[in-house]
């Protein structure tokens, strides 16, 4: 009898790209990064997504993942680095690379992938308080609904198109 065809390899690509300074020149300026995710894994609700997140949100995410993961080690984030020698651009690029490496390791970890916060962080544009509310069942939508709503709204892509010169 014929052997069954091999199962397709599950593959998740995650990229941290396009750092942008928001509120430039003001006291509350910050840099956010585009997180692009493309996957064929059943673990994810949306097969493609695109959101923008800032470093502070990554710090929150890591803390939450660590709380829930118990003894499973959570990958490190690039340092907070209050003292940095070199240009701002260099710092931002180093941080971008570090954030990408962090997410690449996180999405390969089955335990971390079971945390709904990670999915809302990667596949919706909900704020941190709204992610918390959603995960605790106090949001207007379930986790899956929130992600599908964002995917259908196509925000990530529309935003990219509008900003092209």
From TrEMBL:
PROSITE patterns: PX. Keywords: Cytoplasm, Endosome, Lipid-binding, Membrane, Protein transport, Transport. GO terms for biological process: intracellular protein transport; vesicle organization. GO terms for molecular function: phosphatidylinositol phosphate binding. It is found in: Cytoplasm; Endomembrane system; Endosome. Residues 11-128 form the PX domain. It is a peripheral membrane protein. One of its GO terms (cellular component) is endosome. Its main location: cytoplasm. CDD domains: PX_SNX10 (cd06898). The keyword Transport applies. Belongs to the sorting nexin family. This is SNX11 protein. It comes from Neodrepanis coruscans.
């Amino acid at each position: 009898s014929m052997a069954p065809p091999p199962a397709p390899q599950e593959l998740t690509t995650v990229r941290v790209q396009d750092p942008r300074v928001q509120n430039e020149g003001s006291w509350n300026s910050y840099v956010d990064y585009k997180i692009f995710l493309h996957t064929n894994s059943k673990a994810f609700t949306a097969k493609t997504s695109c959101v923008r997140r800032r470093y502070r949100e990554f710090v929150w995410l890591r803390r939450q993942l660590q709380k829930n993961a118990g003894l499973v080690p959570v990958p490190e984030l690039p340092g907070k680095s209050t003292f940095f020698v070199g240009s701002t651009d260099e710092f931002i690029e180093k941080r971008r690379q570090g954030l990408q490496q962090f997410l690449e390791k996180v999405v390969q970890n089955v335990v971390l992938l079971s945390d709904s916060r990670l999915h809302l962080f990667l596949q919706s544009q909900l704020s941190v308080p709204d992610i918390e509310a959603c995960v605790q069942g106090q949001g207007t939508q379930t986790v899956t609904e929130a992600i599908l709503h964002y995917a259908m709204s196509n925000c990530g892509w529309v935003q990219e198109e509008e900003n092209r010169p």
